[in-house]
Amino acid sequence: HSPDIYGRIAEKAKQEMYQRCNEEPEQGAKAVFDHVRRNNPHPEAQKLLFIHNESTLNRRRRGKMPKLPIDANEFSKLIQSSERYKKYHIQDVVVDGLIDSILLGDRWFLNEVEDCEVFSYYATYGPCPPMFQQLFIVSFKKNGEWFPGLYCLMLRKDITAYRGVFSALKKLIPGFNPTM
User: SS in 3 state form for the chain?
Assistant: First the structure.
């Protein structure tokens, strides 16, 4: 075979990768690359290196992905308009005229909250969208089982921010009376 044929085979495999990135932008570049190599038996396709294709694949994926929100106001509007978050009651926690936190309450939890035995809350710093500093979670105990029910994405971790969150929670959950 001539080198030209090998070049066309490799190019065809690359085009398949780019097409998969366009059709399935949620797939990672490495997953798309591995899938195409695994399903293309030709040795020339197997010679393609991920490092030579990674930036192009990622660029194509990013072009199809939704743009990240730039601030809490835009983030709040984005999740409130999303089908994925329809099961949540979403409420902006406003402090000094600005969104300080975003509260997401599972609607089932909010319907069942009056029968809850105990509440617990904790904060975690890892799994937050980049603009937020922490995820504050309220769990409840019902029939001996613990369930997370409210999530609050907080922009700050100071006393004013916590007061705003606790004030919103007290209005939303009858009988919820946390102390700081």
Answer: CCHHHHHHHHHHHHHHHHHHHHHCCCCCHHHHHHHHHHCCCCHHHHCCCHHHHHHHHHHHHHHHCCCCCCCHHHHHHHHHHCHHHCCEEEEEEEECCEEEEEEEEEHHHHHHHHHCCEEEEEEECCCCCCCCCEEEEEEEEECCEEEEEEEEEECCCCHHHHHHHHHHHHHHCCCCCCCC
Strand order in the sheet with 98-106: 88-95, 98-106, 145-154, 134-142, 118-124
The long-range contacts involving 16-20, CB below 8 angstroms and separated by at least 24 positions, are 16/40, 17/53, 17/57, 18/56, 18/57, 18/60
Q: Are 109 and 140 in contact (CB under 8 A)?
A: yes
Q: Which of 2-16, 46-60, 150-164 has the highest mean pLDDT?
A: 150-164
Q: How far apart are the first and last CA of the chain?
A: 75
| pLDDT band at 1; cut points 50, 70, 90 | very low
Q: What is the pLDDT of residues 156-180, one digit of tens each?
A: 888 888 889 888 888 887 767 665 5
